[in-house]
Amino acid sequence: MRTHVAADEQDFARRAAGIVCNVVRGRPDAAIGLPSGDTPLGLYAELARRARAGQTDLQGVTAFAIDELYGVPLDHPATNASYFRRHLTEHVALRAFHVMDSTTAGPAVECARFRRLIDEAGGLDLVVLGIGLNGHIGFNEPGSPFDSRARQVPLTDTTRAAYVQLFGSAKATPAYGLTLGIADLLEARDVLLLATGVEKAEVVAQALEGPVTETLPASSLQGHLSLTVLLDRDAASRLRGT
Ligand code: GLP
Asked: Residue 179 CA: which ligand 1 atom is closest?
């Protein structure tokens, strides 16, 4: 595991983009899994900046959103389909961008279709991950088996709480998500875990230095052979090893 602690927001975004761009330099037709959330926003802005400035070329890249809300219209601003349009694909030319269909009537079939697309792209060269306050990765909530595959999952109250504002009320907030499974995420050749903010410090320390357990999905990453962790100072503040 390589752990980097960024000096500030700009340094965080640059380092994260540097890691993504290195993978693409080595493999211009890379397949990359990407998370939503606030944490990677600087990364996506920096990728857009580099692409505009001609410093990187992502036109061969096939990108996959690692999760999606379920049962929400595609164009709702809270879906990952909307998120990635706003923050990535409107600004950066990619070969293709795939997201699971939040409106599908057959979640199992949709998840299988999505996994097939990843297989057809040759498997993920890199997956970028955020981490939830309860240690989830993608929408793999605590208790998710480490051998889980893409599937429909119930969202925990903690996770739903993060979306209430976007849906106006707890009742209107989706109860399910679609997510790549932990086994799908761990099959990526490289993993980049991103976390910022003091509220993530404890879960980051538990995930990286605590016991490997299905009650903390991100602890599964300890077993990955090529894991890079990029933190800001606040998120790193509980780690013993830094
Ligand atoms: C959501 C997403 C995850 C993301 C997490 C953290 O639950 N499904 O993929 O990593 O939130 O989000 P944030 O970066 O906003 O803390």
From this structure: 8
